[in-house]
Protein backbone atom coordinates (compact mmCIF):
# COMPACT_ATOMS: atom_id res chain seq x y z
CA UNK A 1 0.00 0.00 0.00
CA UNK A 2 2.78 2.46 0.81
CA UNK A 3 4.32 4.40 -2.10
CA UNK A 4 7.90 5.71 -2.27
CA UNK A 5 8.68 7.41 1.05
CA UNK A 6 8.43 11.19 0.51
CA UNK A 7 10.19 13.67 2.83
CA UNK A 8 7.61 16.37 2.21
CA UNK A 9 4.12 16.77 0.88
CA UNK A 10 1.84 19.74 0.13
CA UNK A 11 -0.98 18.09 2.10
CA UNK A 12 -0.54 15.50 4.82
CA UNK A 13 -3.67 13.83 6.17
CA UNK A 14 -3.29 12.02 9.49
CA UNK A 15 -5.59 9.06 10.10
CA UNK A 16 -7.11 6.71 7.53
CA UNK A 17 -10.59 6.18 8.92
CA UNK A 18 -13.65 7.29 6.98
CA UNK A 19 -12.84 10.99 7.49
CA UNK A 20 -9.16 10.89 6.57
CA UNK A 21 -9.64 8.49 3.64
CA UNK A 22 -12.38 10.74 2.25
CA UNK A 23 -10.26 13.88 2.69
CA UNK A 24 -7.19 12.32 1.06
CA UNK A 25 -9.33 11.11 -1.85
CA UNK A 26 -10.96 14.51 -2.34
CA UNK A 27 -7.63 16.37 -2.15
CA UNK A 28 -5.83 13.98 -4.49
CA UNK A 29 -8.72 14.01 -6.97
CA UNK A 30 -8.32 17.81 -7.18
CA UNK A 31 -4.70 17.35 -8.21
CA UNK A 32 -2.99 18.12 -4.89
CA UNK A 33 0.10 16.30 -3.68
CA UNK A 34 -1.12 14.22 -0.73
CA UNK A 35 0.38 11.85 1.83
CA UNK A 36 -1.99 9.89 4.06
CA UNK A 37 -0.46 8.73 7.35
CA UNK A 38 -1.95 5.92 9.42
CA UNK A 39 -0.60 4.57 12.70
CA UNK A 40 -2.04 1.12 11.95
CA UNK A 41 -3.79 0.21 8.70
CA UNK A 42 -6.74 2.00 7.03
CA UNK A 43 -10.01 1.39 8.94
CA UNK A 44 -7.95 0.40 12.00
CA UNK A 45 -9.66 -2.31 14.05
CA UNK A 46 -9.45 -0.15 17.21
CA UNK A 47 -10.83 3.03 15.60
CA UNK A 48 -14.35 4.02 14.52
CA UNK A 49 -14.49 2.95 10.87
CA UNK A 50 -13.84 -0.79 10.93
CA UNK A 51 -16.33 -3.52 10.05
CA UNK A 52 -19.22 -3.83 7.68
CA UNK A 53 -22.20 -2.09 9.25
CA UNK A 54 -23.17 1.56 9.80
CA UNK A 55 -26.67 2.94 9.30
CA UNK A 56 -27.26 5.18 6.30
CA UNK A 57 -30.48 7.18 6.85
CA UNK A 58 -32.08 10.48 5.96
CA UNK A 59 -34.17 10.88 9.13
CA UNK A 60 -32.89 13.71 11.31
CA UNK A 61 -34.95 16.14 13.41
CA UNK A 62 -32.81 18.95 11.97
CA UNK A 63 -33.29 19.47 8.23
CA UNK A 64 -29.69 20.66 7.90
CA UNK A 65 -28.50 17.07 8.35
CA UNK A 66 -31.21 15.57 6.14
CA UNK A 67 -30.17 17.87 3.31
CA UNK A 68 -26.52 17.00 3.97
CA UNK A 69 -27.38 13.29 3.61
CA UNK A 70 -28.92 14.05 0.22
CA UNK A 71 -25.70 15.79 -0.80
CA UNK A 72 -23.58 12.95 0.60
CA UNK A 73 -25.65 10.34 -1.27
CA UNK A 74 -24.71 11.87 -4.62
CA UNK A 75 -21.06 11.56 -3.65
CA UNK A 76 -21.59 7.98 -2.39
CA UNK A 77 -23.14 7.05 -5.76
CA UNK A 78 -20.16 8.52 -7.60
CA UNK A 79 -17.75 6.76 -5.26
CA UNK A 80 -19.48 3.38 -5.71
CA UNK A 81 -19.34 3.82 -9.47
CA UNK A 82 -15.64 4.77 -9.49
CA UNK A 83 -14.76 2.03 -7.01
CA UNK A 84 -16.91 -0.58 -8.76
CA UNK A 85 -18.31 -1.77 -5.41
CA UNK A 86 -21.64 -1.68 -3.59
CA UNK A 87 -20.97 0.44 -0.49
CA UNK A 88 -24.54 1.00 0.75
CA UNK A 89 -27.03 -1.89 0.78
CA UNK A 90 -30.66 -0.74 0.89
CA UNK A 91 -32.72 -2.09 3.82
CA UNK A 92 -34.96 0.88 4.74
CA UNK A 93 -35.26 2.24 8.28
CA UNK A 94 -37.84 2.50 11.05
CA UNK A 95 -37.67 5.24 13.70
CA UNK A 96 -39.93 5.09 16.74
CA UNK A 97 -40.22 5.49 20.49
CA UNK A 98 -41.62 8.20 22.77
CA UNK A 99 -38.69 10.57 22.33
CA UNK A 100 -37.78 9.82 18.68
CA UNK A 101 -40.66 12.00 17.40
CA UNK A 102 -41.56 10.05 14.23
CA UNK A 103 -44.10 12.69 13.11
CA UNK A 104 -41.51 15.45 13.35
CA UNK A 105 -39.01 13.36 11.37
CA UNK A 106 -41.71 12.68 8.76
CA UNK A 107 -42.21 16.44 8.40
CA UNK A 108 -38.50 16.95 7.76
CA UNK A 109 -38.43 14.17 5.15
CA UNK A 110 -41.56 15.61 3.48
CA UNK A 111 -39.84 19.02 3.30
CA UNK A 112 -36.85 17.46 1.57
CA UNK A 113 -38.94 15.35 -0.83
CA UNK A 114 -37.79 12.02 0.60
CA UNK A 115 -40.10 9.01 0.29
CA UNK A 116 -41.52 7.89 3.65
CA UNK A 117 -44.62 6.65 5.51
CA UNK A 118 -45.89 7.35 9.01
CA UNK A 119 -47.49 4.17 10.40
CA UNK A 120 -49.41 3.39 13.56
CA UNK A 121 -47.71 0.94 15.93
CA UNK A 122 -50.26 -1.72 14.92
CA UNK A 123 -49.67 -1.20 11.19
CA UNK A 124 -45.92 -1.42 11.76
CA UNK A 125 -46.27 -4.59 13.90
CA UNK A 126 -48.19 -6.23 11.05
CA UNK A 127 -45.46 -5.34 8.59
CA UNK A 128 -42.52 -6.23 10.88
CA UNK A 129 -43.79 -8.71 13.52
CA UNK A 130 -40.19 -9.18 14.66
CA UNK A 131 -40.29 -5.74 16.37
CA UNK A 132 -42.55 -4.77 19.32
CA UNK A 133 -43.21 -1.17 18.27
CA UNK A 134 -44.40 1.03 21.14
CA UNK A 135 -45.35 4.23 19.26
CA UNK A 136 -46.13 5.36 15.74
CA UNK A 137 -43.33 4.61 13.32
CA UNK A 138 -41.54 6.48 10.57
CA UNK A 139 -40.51 4.19 7.68
CA UNK A 140 -38.23 5.41 4.92
CA UNK A 141 -37.10 2.92 2.29
CA UNK A 142 -34.08 4.93 1.10
CA UNK A 143 -32.07 4.02 4.21
CA UNK A 144 -29.54 1.20 4.28
CA UNK A 145 -26.28 -0.14 5.62
CA UNK A 146 -22.85 1.26 4.78
CA UNK A 147 -19.95 -1.15 4.56
CA UNK A 148 -17.55 1.14 6.44
CA UNK A 149 -14.33 -0.78 5.95
CA UNK A 150 -14.88 -1.40 2.23
CA UNK A 151 -15.68 2.32 1.87
CA UNK A 152 -12.44 3.35 3.60
CA UNK A 153 -10.43 1.02 1.39
CA UNK A 154 -12.22 2.25 -1.74
CA UNK A 155 -11.45 5.90 -0.92
CA UNK A 156 -7.83 5.13 -0.07
CA UNK A 157 -7.45 3.22 -3.36
CA UNK A 158 -8.91 6.16 -5.29
CA UNK A 159 -6.62 8.60 -3.48
CA UNK A 160 -3.67 6.42 -4.53
CA UNK A 161 -5.01 6.24 -8.09
CA UNK A 162 -4.96 10.05 -8.09
CA UNK A 163 -1.32 10.06 -6.98
CA UNK A 164 -1.52 10.05 -3.15
CA UNK A 165 1.05 8.21 -1.06
CA UNK A 166 -0.13 6.13 1.90
CA UNK A 167 2.21 5.39 4.81
CA UNK A 168 0.91 2.74 7.19
CA UNK A 169 2.39 2.04 10.62
CA UNK A 170 3.33 5.76 10.80
CA UNK A 171 2.18 7.12 14.13
CA UNK A 172 2.27 10.90 14.45
CA UNK A 173 3.85 11.84 17.76
CA UNK A 174 4.33 15.61 17.56
CA UNK A 175 4.22 18.51 15.13
CA UNK A 176 6.67 21.38 14.88
CA UNK A 177 5.77 24.62 13.16
CA UNK A 178 8.28 25.69 10.49
CA UNK A 179 8.44 29.49 10.56
CA UNK A 180 5.75 31.86 11.69
CA UNK A 181 4.23 33.33 8.52
CA UNK A 182 0.77 32.47 7.20
CA UNK A 183 2.30 30.23 4.52
CA UNK A 184 4.65 28.33 6.81
CA UNK A 185 4.35 24.60 7.09
CA UNK A 186 4.97 21.85 9.61
CA UNK A 187 7.49 19.14 10.43
CA UNK A 188 5.84 15.93 11.59
CA UNK A 189 7.68 13.54 13.90
CA UNK A 190 6.60 9.92 14.17
CA UNK A 191 6.78 7.82 17.33
CA UNK A 192 9.56 5.81 15.63
CA UNK A 193 11.67 8.93 14.89
CA UNK A 194 10.79 9.48 11.20
CA UNK A 195 10.03 13.01 9.96
CA UNK A 196 7.88 14.37 7.18
CA UNK A 197 7.34 18.01 6.19
CA UNK A 198 3.86 19.22 5.33
CA UNK A 199 2.75 22.44 3.70
CA UNK A 200 -0.74 21.82 5.05
CA UNK A 201 -1.83 19.37 7.68
CA UNK A 202 -5.22 17.73 8.16
CA UNK A 203 -5.75 15.85 11.41
CA UNK A 204 -8.53 13.24 11.25
CA UNK A 205 -7.44 11.02 14.12
CA UNK A 206 -10.86 9.97 15.48
CA UNK A 207 -10.78 9.11 19.18
CA UNK A 208 -7.04 9.83 19.33
CA UNK A 209 -7.71 13.52 18.69
CA UNK A 210 -8.17 14.73 22.30
CA UNK A 211 -4.66 13.62 23.27
CA UNK A 212 -3.06 14.56 19.96
CA UNK A 213 -4.35 18.13 20.33
CA UNK A 214 -1.81 18.61 23.12
CA UNK A 215 1.07 18.10 20.67
CA UNK A 216 -0.19 20.31 17.83
CA UNK A 217 1.02 23.88 17.31
CA UNK A 218 -2.44 25.44 17.45
CA UNK A 219 -3.12 29.00 18.66
CA UNK A 220 -4.33 29.02 22.26
CA UNK A 221 -7.49 30.94 21.30
CA UNK A 222 -8.40 28.28 18.75
CA UNK A 223 -7.81 25.49 21.27
CA UNK A 224 -9.92 27.30 23.86
CA UNK A 225 -12.82 27.57 21.41
CA UNK A 226 -12.95 23.83 20.60
CA UNK A 227 -15.90 21.87 21.93
CA UNK A 228 -15.24 19.32 24.64
CA UNK A 229 -14.58 15.92 23.03
CA UNK A 230 -15.84 12.88 24.91
CA UNK A 231 -14.56 9.49 23.77
CA UNK A 232 -16.71 6.44 24.53
CA UNK A 233 -15.95 2.80 24.03
CA UNK A 234 -19.22 1.70 22.48
CA UNK A 235 -20.35 -1.92 22.56
CA UNK A 236 -22.37 -3.66 19.86
CA UNK A 237 -23.88 -7.14 20.07
CA UNK A 238 -24.99 -9.53 17.34
CA UNK A 239 -28.21 -11.52 17.83
CA UNK A 240 -29.33 -14.38 15.57
CA UNK A 241 -32.62 -14.34 13.72
CA UNK A 242 -34.95 -16.59 15.73
CA UNK A 243 -34.62 -20.22 14.67
CA UNK A 244 -37.56 -21.53 12.67
CA UNK A 245 -38.76 -18.00 11.85
CA UNK A 246 -38.83 -16.48 8.39
CA UNK A 247 -36.72 -13.55 9.56
CA UNK A 248 -33.45 -12.84 7.78
CA UNK A 249 -31.39 -9.81 6.78
CA UNK A 250 -33.65 -9.34 3.77
CA UNK A 251 -36.73 -8.50 5.83
CA UNK A 252 -35.22 -6.51 8.73
CA UNK A 253 -35.01 -2.77 8.39
CA UNK A 254 -32.43 -0.77 10.31
CA UNK A 255 -33.96 0.92 13.37
CA UNK A 256 -33.54 3.70 15.90
CA UNK A 257 -35.69 3.38 19.00
CA UNK A 258 -35.72 6.11 21.62
CA UNK A 259 -37.50 4.74 24.66
CA UNK A 260 -37.74 6.86 27.80
CA UNK A 261 -34.85 5.08 29.53
CA UNK A 262 -32.64 3.93 26.66
CA UNK A 263 -31.79 4.74 23.06
CA UNK A 264 -30.96 1.79 20.86
CA UNK A 265 -30.20 1.13 17.24
CA UNK A 266 -29.98 -2.00 15.15
CA UNK A 267 -29.09 -3.10 11.66
CA UNK A 268 -28.25 -6.22 9.70
CA UNK A 269 -24.74 -7.07 10.92
CA UNK A 270 -23.46 -8.14 7.50
CA UNK A 271 -20.02 -9.65 7.09
CA UNK A 272 -18.97 -8.73 10.66
CA UNK A 273 -20.89 -11.64 12.12
CA UNK A 274 -21.46 -14.03 9.25
CA UNK A 275 -24.68 -12.41 7.95
CA UNK A 276 -26.54 -14.41 10.61
CA UNK A 277 -28.28 -11.71 12.61
CA UNK A 278 -28.85 -8.13 13.68
CA UNK A 279 -26.30 -5.90 15.33
CA UNK A 280 -27.92 -4.08 18.28
CA UNK A 281 -26.38 -1.44 20.55
CA UNK A 282 -27.29 1.14 23.13
CA UNK A 283 -26.43 4.60 21.81
CA UNK A 284 -23.72 6.10 24.03
CA UNK A 285 -24.01 3.06 26.28
CA UNK A 286 -20.29 2.41 26.59
CA UNK A 287 -17.87 3.71 29.21
CA UNK A 288 -16.01 7.01 28.74
CA UNK A 289 -12.27 6.86 28.14
CA UNK A 290 -9.93 9.89 28.15
CA UNK A 291 -8.67 9.07 24.65
CA UNK A 292 -8.58 6.17 22.19
CA UNK A 293 -5.23 5.02 23.56
CA UNK A 294 -6.97 4.24 26.89
CA UNK A 295 -9.57 1.87 25.45
CA UNK A 296 -9.54 -1.71 26.71
CA UNK A 297 -11.53 -3.38 23.91
CA UNK A 298 -13.38 -5.26 26.65
CA UNK A 299 -17.17 -5.41 26.64
CA UNK A 300 -18.86 -4.07 29.76
CA UNK A 301 -21.00 -6.93 31.20
CA UNK A 302 -23.55 -4.46 32.61
CA UNK A 303 -24.11 -2.99 29.17
CA UNK A 304 -24.39 -6.47 27.64
CA UNK A 305 -27.08 -7.32 30.23
CA UNK A 306 -29.02 -4.12 29.42
CA UNK A 307 -28.96 -4.81 25.68
CA UNK A 308 -29.94 -8.48 26.16
CA UNK A 309 -32.86 -7.37 28.33
CA UNK A 310 -33.80 -4.83 25.65
CA UNK A 311 -33.79 -7.50 22.91
CA UNK A 312 -36.00 -9.74 25.08
CA UNK A 313 -38.53 -6.94 25.53
CA UNK A 314 -38.56 -5.28 22.13
CA UNK A 315 -37.18 -7.61 19.44
CA UNK A 316 -39.15 -10.88 19.50
CA UNK A 317 -37.68 -11.86 16.12
CA UNK A 318 -34.22 -12.33 17.62
CA UNK A 319 -32.71 -15.00 19.85
CA UNK A 320 -31.79 -12.85 22.91
CA UNK A 321 -28.38 -14.54 23.38
CA UNK A 322 -25.63 -12.56 21.60
CA UNK A 323 -23.44 -14.74 19.38
CA UNK A 324 -20.79 -12.06 18.75
CA UNK A 325 -19.83 -8.69 20.21
CA UNK A 326 -17.44 -5.86 19.53
CA UNK A 327 -16.33 -2.44 20.75
CA UNK A 328 -15.88 0.75 18.73
CA UNK A 329 -15.11 4.40 19.51
CA UNK A 330 -17.54 7.32 19.55
CA UNK A 331 -15.95 10.78 19.77
CA UNK A 332 -18.77 13.03 20.92
CA UNK A 333 -19.20 16.78 20.92
CA UNK A 334 -21.87 18.29 23.21
CA UNK A 335 -24.14 19.32 20.29
CA UNK A 336 -23.40 16.17 18.24
CA UNK A 337 -22.19 18.47 15.45
CA UNK A 338 -18.91 17.61 13.75
CA UNK A 339 -15.83 19.75 14.10
CA UNK A 340 -14.22 20.80 10.80
CA UNK A 341 -12.10 23.85 11.37
CA UNK A 342 -8.75 25.32 10.49
CA UNK A 343 -6.11 27.50 12.14
CA UNK A 344 -3.30 28.63 9.86
CA UNK A 345 -2.52 25.62 7.63
CA UNK A 346 -3.74 23.04 10.10
CA UNK A 347 -7.24 21.59 9.67
CA UNK A 348 -8.98 19.46 12.31
CA UNK A 349 -11.71 17.04 11.23
CA UNK A 350 -13.71 15.21 13.87
CA UNK A 351 -16.90 13.81 12.45
CA UNK A 352 -18.19 11.27 14.87
CA UNK A 353 -20.73 11.52 17.69
CA UNK A 354 -21.85 8.16 16.33
CA UNK A 355 -23.38 9.49 13.13
CA UNK A 356 -20.54 10.54 10.83
CA UNK A 357 -20.24 7.48 8.57
CA UNK A 358 -23.15 8.39 6.31
CA UNK A 359 -21.56 11.77 5.51
CA UNK A 360 -18.06 10.44 4.83
CA UNK A 361 -17.55 11.58 1.21
CA UNK A 362 -19.14 14.95 2.01
CA UNK A 363 -16.92 15.33 5.07
CA UNK A 364 -13.97 14.73 2.75
CA UNK A 365 -15.29 17.42 0.44
CA UNK A 366 -15.85 19.89 3.28
CA UNK A 367 -12.40 19.20 4.74
CA UNK A 368 -10.70 19.54 1.35
CA UNK A 369 -12.58 22.79 0.69
CA UNK A 370 -11.48 24.22 4.02
CA UNK A 371 -7.88 23.00 3.86
CA UNK A 372 -7.36 24.42 0.36
CA UNK A 373 -9.38 27.58 0.94
CA UNK A 374 -11.66 26.60 -1.97
CA UNK A 375 -14.87 27.09 0.03
CA UNK A 376 -16.14 27.57 3.56
CA UNK A 377 -17.73 24.86 5.69
CA UNK A 378 -21.02 25.32 7.55
CA UNK A 379 -20.49 27.58 10.57
CA UNK A 380 -21.85 24.95 12.97
CA UNK A 381 -18.72 22.84 12.32
CA UNK A 382 -16.31 25.59 13.32
CA UNK A 383 -14.93 26.23 16.79
CA UNK A 384 -16.35 29.01 18.93
CA UNK A 385 -13.26 31.17 18.35
CA UNK A 386 -13.37 31.03 14.53
CA UNK A 387 -15.00 33.95 12.74
CA UNK A 388 -18.47 33.04 11.44
CA UNK A 389 -18.68 32.49 7.69
CA UNK A 390 -21.76 32.38 5.56
CA UNK A 391 -22.22 29.14 3.66
C1 LIG B 1 -20.15 1.46 17.16
C2 LIG B 1 -20.29 2.57 16.17
C3 LIG B 1 -21.45 2.65 15.44
C4 LIG B 1 -21.64 3.69 14.56
N1 LIG B 1 -22.78 3.72 13.84
C5 LIG B 1 -22.96 4.67 12.90
C6 LIG B 1 -24.11 4.64 12.09
O1 LIG B 1 -24.96 3.77 12.23
N2 LIG B 1 -24.26 5.61 11.15
C7 LIG B 1 -23.32 6.59 10.97
O2 LIG B 1 -23.50 7.44 10.09
N3 LIG B 1 -22.19 6.63 11.74
C8 LIG B 1 -22.00 5.70 12.69
N4 LIG B 1 -20.88 5.70 13.46
C9 LIG B 1 -19.92 6.81 13.32
C10 LIG B 1 -18.88 6.62 12.26
O3 LIG B 1 -18.48 5.29 12.17
C11 LIG B 1 -17.74 7.58 12.59
O4 LIG B 1 -18.25 8.90 12.47
C12 LIG B 1 -16.55 7.45 11.67
O5 LIG B 1 -16.14 6.12 11.55
C13 LIG B 1 -15.41 8.32 12.25
O6 LIG B 1 -14.29 8.16 11.42
P1 LIG B 1 -12.92 8.90 11.74
O7 LIG B 1 -12.15 8.80 10.48
O8 LIG B 1 -13.19 10.23 12.32
O9 LIG B 1 -12.23 8.06 12.92
P2 LIG B 1 -11.46 6.67 12.85
O10 LIG B 1 -12.14 5.70 11.99
O11 LIG B 1 -11.18 6.25 14.25
O12 LIG B 1 -10.11 7.04 12.13
C14 LIG B 1 -9.04 7.68 12.78
C15 LIG B 1 -7.77 7.04 12.30
O13 LIG B 1 -6.67 7.81 12.74
C16 LIG B 1 -5.61 6.94 13.06
N5 LIG B 1 -4.72 7.65 13.96
C17 LIG B 1 -5.02 8.10 15.20
N6 LIG B 1 -3.97 8.72 15.76
C18 LIG B 1 -2.99 8.70 14.83
C19 LIG B 1 -1.64 9.17 14.82
N7 LIG B 1 -1.11 9.81 15.90
N8 LIG B 1 -0.87 8.95 13.72
C20 LIG B 1 -1.39 8.31 12.64
N9 LIG B 1 -2.68 7.82 12.60
C21 LIG B 1 -3.46 8.03 13.69
C22 LIG B 1 -6.32 5.76 13.71
O14 LIG B 1 -5.52 4.59 13.70
C23 LIG B 1 -7.57 5.63 12.85
O15 LIG B 1 -7.39 4.73 11.78
C24 LIG B 1 -20.64 4.68 14.38
C25 LIG B 1 -19.46 4.59 15.11
C26 LIG B 1 -19.27 3.55 15.98
C27 LIG B 1 -17.99 3.49 16.75
TrEMBL record:
Domain FAD dependent oxidoreductase: 10-370
Record's keyword terms, sorted: FAD, Flavoprotein, Oxidoreductase
Keyword Oxidoreductase applies: yes
InterPro entries, per the entry: FAD-dep_OxRdtase, FAD/NAD-bd_sf, MTOX
Superkingdom to which the source organism belongs: Bacteria
SUPFAM superfamilies assigned to the protein according to its UniProt record, in alphabetical order: FAD-linked reductases, C-terminal domain, FAD/NAD(P)-binding domain
MF term (GO), any: flavin adenine dinucleotide binding
Protein name: Sarcosine oxidase
Provenance organism: Pseudarthrobacter enclensis
The organism's taxonomic lineage, starting at the top: Bacteria, Bacillati, Actinomycetota, Actinomycetes, Micrococcales
Amino acid sequence: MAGAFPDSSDYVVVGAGLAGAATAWQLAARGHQVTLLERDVPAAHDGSSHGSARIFRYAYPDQFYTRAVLEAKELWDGLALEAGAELITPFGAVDYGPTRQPALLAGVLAGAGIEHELLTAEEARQRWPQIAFDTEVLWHPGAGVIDAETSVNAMVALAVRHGATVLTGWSLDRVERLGSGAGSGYRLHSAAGETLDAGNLVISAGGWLPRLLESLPLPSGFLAGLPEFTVRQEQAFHFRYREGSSFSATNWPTFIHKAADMQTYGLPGGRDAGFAGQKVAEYNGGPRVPSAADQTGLVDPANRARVVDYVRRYLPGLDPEPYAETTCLFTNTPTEDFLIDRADNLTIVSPCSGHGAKFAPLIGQWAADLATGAAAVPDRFRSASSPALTT
